[in-house]
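Q: I'm teaching a short session on how sequence maps to structure, and I want students to see two examples side by side rather than one. Could you give me a first protein with its sequence written out and its structure tokens following it? Keep the formatting plain so it prints cleanly on a handout.
A: Of course. Example one:
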Amino acid sequence: MKFQSAYRPLRLSRLILSAAALSLSLSLLPGQSHAQARDLPDFTELVERVGPAVVNIRTSERARNAAANGGPEIDEQMQEFLRRFGIPVPGQRRAPPRGERGDRGNEGGTDDDQAPQRRGVGSGFILSADGYVMTNAHVVSGADEVWVTLTDKREFKAKVVGADRRSDVAVLKIEATGLPAVKIGDVGRLKVGEWVMAIGSPFGFDNTVTAGIVSAKARDTGDFLPLIQTDVAINPGNSGGPLLNMRGEVVGINSQIYSQSGGFMGISFAIPIDEAVRVSDQLRGSGRVVRGYIGVAPDDLSKEVAESIGLGKASGALIRSVTSGGAADKAGIEGGDVITKFDGKTVDKATDLRRIVGGMKPGSKVVVQVFRRGAMKELNLTVGEMPDDAKARTGEAEPKPIAGAVAALGLQVSDLSDAQRRELKLRAGVRVDAASGVAARAGLREGDLILAVDNTEVSSVKQFQALMSKAEKAKLINLMVRRDDIVSFVLLRPAR
């Protein structure tokens, strides 16, 4: 009985304490919930304000199906998914949009190769109240007809004012006035970790809103534009839609995703709006974008090569080849030079040079700082204009890489005749006649030209042999080697 009487008060006290704790917890929950709600962003006002300026873009082209014309192939599972939601499958026949007359001459459709086909769905946003629309160049590429649909369901046939594939920016024009337009934001104020929102038409679902944060800025995924990386959900159909900050300003154009499945995997990229506006201004003015061109093939500089040539740090663009007759060739830039500054701007890597040159106005006179054989030089250069060539980048020819390294052991070399030097446009160098042993395993082969040893220009076989014999066995030797029109630095450790 004592045990029971002693136990009951203890049990009652535990119940009282538990009830008090529960009451205290419940009293704290509303405050915690409100605090969490205050910390999370609310996008509703942004969607209401900016949503009407975002448009759906549909394109069509005269072809049997999209796959036959380089368009994406969609597997049966995805086709069934689209059908369930009433979304036309790209590459299959569709009812023409309002105002469009379909060709009814062949009801079976087996020979009707001229019928308009649904090619794709994309997004865009209205730049100005008089009907200018911005989107991605790849959204409208190859399209015979482009249709823009507003949130109020009005549909307009659009004219492609201009499209720049290098930046993936296009400008359209629709015949309308008094349209709601977006506000352009300042990309310089954008911070990593900042909340951002996207509006677009993934898989044809108009005005779909997704949100996330800025994951990184200035990602080097393209030659001319450093892209904004986010974790905002972007899928096919979002391309060309706006990326918005919490002030409702457009800071980017959603353009790419990184994916191993074809769908969103948490990494998406947007074109910075300041770069896109510069491109759009040129497209609206002349229908094309003019870029600078100097005629070089730049490459990144490794730490080992930088140290071996005496540059110290791996900063600069290594010139692999120079286009004959181009701006760089006329200025005296040579293969093997390292461009460290261009028009006063520091060049840390190859993409820096491409972007700086691409942004220059043709005809501009600039000073180029190069590192050549252990010393800095300044050269005067007049920027040329980039040709309208699908393979042209900022003045570069596609390099043919030299495999491996070059070794001195196992080499047979010969002098170049005066005629050969004139033909090759070389002041000096020796020709590799044969390579075996260490040299062959390193990748050197007959026909290669050795231009310099440890920043010393090689003028003859005798000089080359003297330089190699003086090389310290414990030290890496740097060889400048030319194969075809490509120059490469190769590090060699002599055998002990």
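Q: Perfect. Now a second example for contrast.
A: Example two:
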Amino acid sequence: MKKSLLWLFFLALLAGCAAPGSLPATPTIDVAAIRTAVMLTAIADVTKQAAAATPTPAFTATFTPEPTLTPTPTVAVTLQPVPGIANANLNVRSDPRRGGKNLGGVFFNQKISIAARNPESNWYYIVWPDSPTGYAWILASAVQIENTDLYRLPIAFYDNAGNLVLRPPLVWEIPGTPLPIPPVPQGDKVRPATVIAPANARVCPSVGCMVLTVLPPGQQISMTGRYGDNEWAQFDFPSGPNGKAWVARSALEPGPDGFSGLPRFDVLGMELTPEPPTSTPDPNVTPTITNTPRPTPAGPLARMEADAVIYAEPNSLSAQVGALKKGDEIYITGISLIGEWYQIQFPAFTEGRAYIPRKNVRVLGDMRRVPYFNEQGTPLPTP
């Protein structure tokens, strides 16, 4: 009986545990997981507060200035004199001309310092302490430059206001072989020419300009400009400055139209202002022909058998005013008492007079009426 009661009590107890509304079992708490979650939450909060406390910098626009074009300054010529030596006794002048003030002289074989040349290269600008400017001029024909080329000298000249102007030398380097000269085109305005003797092609119309190449005889060229009294011709030369070069007229045989219509340039190769057009003559009007009498020679004709220097006075210490080549013809107007010097008409057919040594002069006329002159060149009375 007791066993039955105990069994019934045990069944009732089991039924009460499963009844609805009873309390659930107490869960197991993971303390380590809670601590880790709290720590991660704290770190996140600190990071968020730090981000909120740091202000975001405002965007500042930066301005990058554009490059400024700096104008190219005018080339300042620095005179760096080169040595030279006089081959004759010469006068030193204030200007590159015979009428320049005499500032002294140099003797044969004397050393001089050459700073520049004039555009025509017939006068040198030299260092001369006795000049107010420290510089002076001397004839180039009797001076030999040492250690440099003539075309590398700066160019000195005076402008219309009388101010000295210095220009750097005109130097043009051709890499490799010069390009071939193009064929002469056809057209009414084309001015062809033929090279008749080996000729130097230069960067500008002067013997002091740099030589670019040598033109062979027979070379056909197209002339595009002229200098002076048609003494130099500009022509198409692809390897030259602006596709041009210059050659002396004496080495050319121009075409039937000659130099007509060609623009004019100065001695530095810069084009001059075009000349105003001339009026077209009326074809119905017959022009009046005027005969201009040719001046009568002042004395007998003579011919040079060798090159010679022309002097301002009958002595080699006077100024050199020019030069004569072998074969040149002159007119004799006087003779020195001892016969060592001739007075000549210079330039020809003018009232100008100059002097040359008698040596290497072949007289072709009658000398019986030629007057004498003294050591100063003053004519003596005719008996």
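Q: What should students look for in example two?
A: Point them to this: The mean pLDDT is 78. Also worth mentioning: Residues 31-53 form the longest helix (23 residues).
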